[in-house]
Amino acid sequence: QGRRHRDLYTTEWVTAPPRGSGAPVHRTTDLATLPAAVDAGAPVPETVLLVRAEPVDTAGPAAAVRAAVHQALTDVRTWLADDRFAGARLVFATRGAVSTGEREDVRSLAQSAIWGLVRSARSEHPGRFALLDLDADDEHGTGAGVAAALGSGEPECAVRGDDVRVPRLARVLRNDPDLSDGAGGPLRAFDPDGTVLVTGGTGLLGSHVARRLVIGHGVRHLLLLSRGGPAAAGAGELRAELAALGAETAVVACDAADRAALAAVLADLPPAHPLTAVVHTAGTLDDGVVTALTPERVDAVLRPKADAALHLHELTRDLDLTHFVLFSSAAGTFGGPGQANYAAANAFLDALAARRRAAGLAGQSLAWTLWEQPSTLTGHLDEDDVRRLARSGMPPLSTERGLALFDTALTVDRAALVPMRLDTAALRSAAADGTLPPLLRGLVRTP
User: Fold this and answer.
1) Is the confidence at residue 378, as pLDDT, over 80?
2) Do domains 4-169 and 189-440 have the same CATH topology?
3) pLDDT digits (tens, 9 = 90+) for 138-193
4) pLDDT at residue 374 is higher than 80
5) Which residues of 276-302 are buried (b: 16+ CB within 10 A; e: fewer)?
6) What percent of the chain has pLDDT above 90?
7) What Gene3D superfamilies does the entry give (predicted)?
8) Residue-level pLDDT at 447
């Protein structure tokens, strides 16, 4: 099967072993009706399955994502605010919000972001929340596999036909013909005559990526977008450095979350150097526990991540791009305490990459863990924060290791990858005391 890539992981959905049907389930389409029912004498259910209709995107897909996340945030806060449900579990049901196999389409991009938000809420309130992705034709959560999924004890499940599938992180294999070109090289090379667009291009990650594209991948034409553009700190020096390396670089002030502004920039590209690749590194943080989040704080984080990614997708889907790489975060994969809005935005990026791949388009989402070098996103972390992350089994990545993993990821034929260091000793310790997250159980032997 070949050797395994060090520090490069992917989520595999495996069949869950049958464990019975579990306790009775209360189904509802409106969580607000449950307190009234309990007030009237109904018993408090152990498990509540919330099956909401998918938002209609009459105002566009970005608005649908916001509507879904806002509603999920309201539901989370409503559930936590009522002490009568402190011993109960709320299961969010979605339909087609996750891809359980390579090339499986994500039918509901709006609901995909819910998975990130709920993962973070669960990390803050263990045992209170779970996620279940229903089969395509199961509108009410009554399909044959639902009872088995709810009785599995797993915090995340997807029902596909007669199967109940659960996510497990696995190391990516080298030279697996199903995953790469077999030679360790890029699946598609960057076009030396084409232009590569990098959002957040004057930021720390964006500038590192720009240099790597030039030095390691032969890119000769770069379009670096940021809100500051040429006026951003270090932009002039970066442009001069890239020129010395042989690359022609345009640094443009443009908010990629502004669709009209982005379209205008793309229309201005010279025909001799058309857009041939995209790397989306832009993002922002507004951390806070889920009970303190507001729709406005959610939108502030969704905009530079999700909105910009959607615009890039829509404006380039008719182009033959060699790469469409989204810089996501492991917060969307694991759920980070205090980062429900950020996790929602990044879970959306992972789903968008899967959507593009299912349509035959270039698309890859890289869910990074922390990089050692402080950036505008991570500069607020102190040494205690970094040590806490390391104790969790995920020490930070050096810049050189992160860039090497970026190179490696481009050789792997997967829509979503998690580049990260894992401290297996810490994972084994967590497995021994029963605190290892189910997502990581496939990486170490568990009692």
Assistant:
1) no
2) yes
3) 989 998 899 999 999 999 999 998 899 999 999 997 654 444 443 445 689 999 99
4) no
5) bbbbbbbbbbebeebeebebebbbebb
6) 80
7) NAD(P)-binding Rossmann-like Domain (3.40.50.720)
8) 64
* CA separation for the pair 312, 423 (Å, rounded): 36
Domains of the chain, residue spans: 4-169, 189-440
Mean pLDDT of 26-41: 93
For residue 443, what pLDDT is reported? Answer: 92
**What CATH number belongs to 4-169?**
3.40.50.11460
Q: Which overall architecture, per CATH, does domain 189-440 show?
A: 3-Layer(aba) Sandwich (3.40)
